[in-house]
Design brief:
Strand order of the largest sheet of chain C: 6-7-8-3-9-10
Subcellular location (chain A): Cell membrane
Strand content of chain A: under 5%
Largest interface: A-B, 67 and 78 residues
Helix content of chain C: 25-40%
Chains: A mainly alpha (about 270), B mainly alpha (about 290), C alpha/beta (about 250)
CATH topology of the largest domain in chain A: MetI-like fold
Radius of gyration of chain A: 25 Å
Number of strands of chain C: 10
Largest sheet of chain C: 6 strands, mixed
Keywords (chain A): Cell membrane, Membrane, Transmembrane, Transmembrane helix, Transport
CATH superfamily of the largest domain in chain C: P-loop containing nucleotide triphosphate hydrolases
Distance between the termini of chain C: 27 Å
CATH class of the largest domain in chain A: Mainly Alpha
Number of helices of chain C: 9
GO cellular component, one term (chain A): plasma membrane
Number of domains of chain A: 2
Oligomer: heterotrimer
Family (chain A): Belongs to the binding-protein-dependent transport system permease family.
Distance between the termini of chain A: 47 Å
CATH architecture of the largest domain in chain A: Orthogonal Bundle
Structural class of chain C: alpha/beta
Main location (chain A): membrane
Radius of gyration of chain C: 18 Å
Number of strands of chain A: 0
Order of helices and strands of chain A: HHHHHHHHHH
Largest sheet of chain A: none
Shape of chain A: globular
Number of helices of chain A: 10
Strand content of chain C: 15-25%
CATH architecture of the largest domain in chain C: 3-Layer(aba) Sandwich
Chain lengths: ~270, ~290, ~250
């Protein structure tokens, strides 16, 4: 190791220069994007206005309590759609992942095809899924279900593939060495070992889909998203506040249960 | 006489008994939980699926038109109501929105993560901040944007502020978690040298935290791009999402939807690849 | 120079990890604390700079009781105490010279600490210290690329940068190979002689403590069982220190 031809001052100057340049570039990027987008930084200091407005207008009053039943019904539907779309997608994803995982696959082309397919599925924005489906399946729960289903399938296929690949080639070879065939390897060796990991992905996606269901509902005119839009645009803010409260309860509830199960199976 | 303590501190074998039993019990509890969860999920699905089919819908024709539209989208993309330049501009707008919300979010979240970091502050402060963040995240993104578009009026301000909420809440959580995972040794050492919190954060915490900071922030950038597209469509917040909304539910032009989806896909997949390589590099350095 | 009087420490209220520990360390002296693991060696060391709050007793550093100080006084007092760890505890992504410079942050302003503002004289001193421990060529290397022995010597340079009156070493060579161990121990010994710094080392190798320490304190079961010149530590005396029946609570080891 030869001494670097740097003096101390040069070293610290370089270090400082890099940091300064980084901060300058980020600052410049911030300014340029703000101007490009028409965003005023001062708006950041008025962010509390929104919260105040929220607390002021979104307080459910006696009148809005009349909507409680409607909201409750849609909340349950939203939850069920989130769960169903996830489980259905999970079944297909597991199948695809078992075919595509490069530790199991016999064919490289299949691996690449499934990889590309899942990337396509999850990167097509959920908005596009919702809009295309809305056109042919019209305004109903099935549309929301399918939109969530396609995106979830893309996501879970990749997640499952990675989980299977993390299991390791050597363990699979050890199983094959005992004379087990492809299906035996999967059902008796692989699945019991990775069940907990797969399940935690499923739980994560249910959480995610409960959040996204509102967005999809808003776009496709179904579920909890639709009634929020209805009340909100009709300026029935008390009722809209009730919807928000219901969504919070649902999301937090699902999160708590999912964390609990996650801790039990880890 | 070398290392005499080695002979003296051999653990007594009596501790083995209960240790052996524990994992078996744990494994049982685990298996029962997995089976029960799967059972409940399967039941809910079975019950819900039949109710999903609407009464007045011919599933066959619907599926056929859907496939037809997909085919138009992917194999016959084309433009008629907008120009390619306009779409690129819209895409750029969404990218800028994602960039701004990530940058603002990461700065605010970093401060909040420090304030809720257990090695520096009392535990209840962290708990309070984390609960507040969970609350913010429980309200869907698009609702935040809608609320701010009433308060500020529809436009860039509402879009940026509305999307920043989730950005901050998400990043605060993951930053705090990765800070808690760092070795506490570095901070303790600085404390033993008599340093104050400010220098300790800058000199001990920040250098060790940078890799996880980079990878989480980039992951959030990916999410923010998807969110920017979504709220563009659902809240009319502009960008490529709004163009997508117009093309599909205003003009019913699936050729144009195709072009837009291709544009979004290309950028999203580029981000995914960049994010993957960044994480590999950052983790490789550790 | 350093006086520890009647130090006591318990965990969970009843398990005693230290029962009445007293000893003194003179200026420029190398003192080694030896004893079986779980005897309370680490607890003693960390009580001295109050990383662990003890229950009772006195820790006097130049007549100043470490236990009676408020937060900012304690910070000031800690600046006079360098500390060296078994796992080096360097900031691995930073370069060696930056780690050494951390040593002088104690007597600088918070702002200087946040913006890493060091004087030219401090930078030069840090480089000289690195040269002194034989790492002049590695000053601009990230610490994660250094070997264990090199890291420990950066740790020593960092402690020296504090201009300490006392250096505490917690198992400084436990993770090192014999050659690096010798080098580290020789550096520490040399410092005590040249700079008149007192060095207090936790060790578990009896032969090494005999070789490098002036003064040996044997601890067992949270008590001082030996306190004398290194020459006085005969094989029988050493065996006495490591007697098993005195190990009261192994699990209390930190």
């Amino acid at each position: 190791m030869t001494p670097k031809a740097l003096t101390i001052s040069q070293f610290f100057f370089k270090k400082r220069l890099h940091l300064t340049l980084l901060v300058l570039i980020l600052g410049l990027a911030y300014v340029v994007s703000s101007i490009g987008l028409g965003f005023q930084t001062t708006a950041l200091f008025h962010a509390q206005d929104g919260l105040i407005w929220l607390l002021h207008n979104f307080i459910p009053n006696a009148e809005s309590m009349r909507y409680w039943q409607d909201i409750g019904h849609q909340l349950v539907r939203t939850f069920l759609i989130a769960v169903t779309s996830t489980t259905c997608a999970a079944v297909i994803s597991l199948f695809l992942a078992a075919l595509g995982a490069n530790t199991l696959s016999l064919n490289n082309a299949v691996t690449w095809f499934i990889r590309g397919f899942s990337s396509l599925m999850r990167n097509i924005p959920i908005v596009a899924w919702a809009m295309i489906l809305l056109f042919s399946f019209k305004q109903n729960d099935l549309t929301g279900f399918l939109a969530l289903f396609f995106m979830t399938m893309g996501f879970l296929t990749r997640a499952f593939m990675e989980t299977i690949e993390d299991f390791g080639m050597d363990k699979i070879e050890a199983l094959q060495a005992t004379g087990a065939n492809y299906l035996q390897v999967i059902f008796q060796g692989l699945l019991p070992e990775i069940a907990a990991a797969l399940l935690s992905w499923v739980l994560y996606m249910i959480e995610n889909n409960v959040r996204d269901a509102t967005l999809v509902g808003l776009l496709t005119g179904t579920g909890i998203g639709f009634i929020f839009d209805l009340y909100f645009k009709g300026m029935r803010y008390g009722a809209a506040g009730l919807v928000v409260l219901a969504v919070i309860i649902l999301v937090v509830g699902v999160e708590v249960i999912s964390n609990l199960i996650g801790r039990l199976i880890e | 006489m070398i290392k005499p303590e080695k002979q003296l501190t051999i653990p007594t074998p009596t501790a083995k008994g209960p240790q052996f039993k524990m994992p078996v019990k744990l494994k049982d509890r685990r298996r029962v939980t997995i089976y029960l969860t799967l059972l409940v999920l399967a039941y809910l699905t079975m019950v819900t699926l039949p109710t999903m089919l609407p009464d007045h819908l011919n599933l066959k024709t619907a599926s056929l038109t859907f496939l037809q539209n997909i085919q138009i989208m992917f194999f016959h993309p084309g433009l008629s109501n907008t120009t390619f330049v306009q779409l690129i501009q819209a895409l750029l707008e969404s990218i800028l929105l994602a960039f701004l919300t990530t940058l603002i979010g990461s700065v605010i979240a970093f401060v909040l993560a420090l304030v809720s970091f257990r090695q520096l502050v009392p535990a209840w402060v962290g708990l309070a901040i984390q609960s507040f963040m969970a609350l913010i995240r429980a309200i869907p993104n698009v609702l935040w944007v809608l609320i701010y578009s009433v308060v500020f009026g529809l436009g860039a301000n509402a879009a940026v502020i509305g999307l920043t909420f989730h950005s901050v809440a998400y990043l605060t959580k993951v930053y705090t978690d990765s800070m808690e995972e760092l070795e506490p040794d570095a901070i303790e050492t600085m404390r033993a040298m008599g340093l104050k919190n400010g220098p300790i954060i800058r000199q001990a915490l920040v250098p060790n935290f940078i890799p996880s900071y980079l990878s989480w922030t980039f992951i959030r950038f990916e999410i923010n791009f998807a969110d920017a597209v979504a709220v563009g469509a659902a809240a009319g917040a502009g960008g490529i999402g709004y163009q997508l909304f117009m093309a599909s539910s205003f003009y019913f032009n699936f050729h144009e939807v195709g072009v837009i989806v291709y544009l979004i896909l290309v950028f999203a997949i580029l981000l995914e690849i960049a994010s993957y390589h960044l994480r590999k590099r950052v983790m490789g350095n550790q | 120079m350093l006086e520890v009087k009647h130090l006591m420490k318990s965990y969970d209220g009843h398990k005693r990890s230290l029962t009445d520990v007293s000893f003194t360390v003179a200026t420029g002296e190398v003192a080694a604390i030896i004893g079986p693991s779980g005897a309370g060696k680490t607890t003693i060391l960390r009580s001295i700079n109050q990383l662990i709050k003890d229950d009772e007793g006195q820790v006097l550093l130049n007549e100043l009781d470490m236990r009676q100080l408020n937060r900012s006084q304690l910070r000031q007092a800690r600046q006079n105490i360098g500390m060296i760890f078994q796992n080096y505890n360097l900031i691995e992504p930073l370069t060696a010279i930056e780690n050494v410079l951390h040593g002088c942050l104690g007597n600088k302003s918070t702002l200087a600490g946040i913006f890493s503002l060091y004087r030219q004289s401090e930078k030069e001193e840090a480089l000289q210290l690195l040269q002194k421990v034989g790492l002049g060529n590695f000053a601009y290397q990230q610490c994660r690329h250094l070997s264990g022995g090199q890291k420990q010597r950066v740790g020593i340079a960092r402690a020296l940068m504090q201009h300490p009156k006392l250096i505490l070493c917690d198992e400084p060579i436990a993770s090192l190979d014999p050659k690096s161990s010798t080098l580290v121990m020789e550096t520490l010994r040399q410092l005590a002689i040249e700079e008149h710094i007192s060095v207090l080392i936790n060790l578990h190798q009896v032969d090494i403590s005999r070789q490098y320490a002036d003064h040996i304190i044997g601890i067992n079961g949270g008590q001082v069982v030996f306190d004398d010149h290194a020459e006085a530590l005969t094989d029988t005396a050493a065996a006495q220190i490591y007697r098993k029946d005195l190990v009261l609570n192994e699990e209390a080891a930190v």
